[in-house]
């Protein structure tokens, strides 16, 4: 269970998050949509303290972190509960696919090399890349690299996976394979918060859709409630615009 209460964040005089509240149940997939510059990435980054919120309380499982009295130990614990998939993969270029996954396990999770290799191979099998374990990232397509990014985020067994526009750096023909992998994780009831501009994917994968604008959550609902039934003009306009 994830509970986010009153998260606020400013960059100098620019108030980017104006009190965000959100609850995510175990196994739930939450998709965040909304215009660019609205604070979606900042919100995700506040959840693992890549950005430090000015105010607010984040609870993930048994860990509760209050922005106004955060310790290094809190941040460390919170980071162990989350993992992020970035737009640009962020793989280590001079390490093989297998080593990229093992690194996360050995360094962050203090898993032995032997166990790390077993877990890494399992994760790579789940994303359909068993035949690429010895490859270096540059020998893979963008879609394959992003599947490695997903496997690397998953292999540490986080309480929640955070995705920030995981397909927006990809050529259109490579988007589908990445979505298929994310959908397969959703079927396994891995808790996920996903920012995306791909509305069809959002409809398919989301238990809950969050529409954000101007640093606030405007509406939360099922895909049907947001995409078909919302009376909010801004939501209707946004959906019409991105669907064109
Ligand atoms: N590290 C930063 N320093 C200063 N301003 C930032 C930083 N990160 C984001 N912003 C600003 O915060 C606002 C929201 O950005 P962002 O969270 O990236 O929005 P979105 O992901 O919805 O496009 C923008 O005005 C952006 O310029
Ligand atoms: Mg963003």
TrEMBL record:
Membrane topology: Peripheral membrane protein
Domain ABC transporter: 2-239
Organism domain of life: Bacteria
Record InterPro entries: AAA+_ATPase (IPR003593), ABC_ATPase_HisP-typ (IPR030679), ABC_transporter-like_ATP-bd (IPR003439), ABC_transporter-like_CS (IPR017871), MetN_ABC_transporter-like (IPR050086), P-loop_NTPase (IPR027417)
A single cellular component GO annotation: plasma membrane
Record localization: Cell membrane
One Pfam family named in its UniProt record: ABC_tran
Annotated transmembrane regions: none
SUPFAM superfamilies: P-loop containing nucleoside triphosphate hydrolases
CDD domains in UniProt: ABC_HisP_GlnQ
Single GO MF annotation: ABC-type amino acid transporter activity
Matching SMART domains: AAA (SM00382)
Main location: membrane
Annotated keywords: ATP-binding, Cell membrane, Membrane, Nucleotide-binding, Transport
Name under which the protein is recorded: Amino acid ABC transporter ATP-binding protein, PAAT family
Organism: Clostridium frigidicarnis
Lineage: Bacteria, Bacillati, Bacillota, Clostridia, Eubacteriales
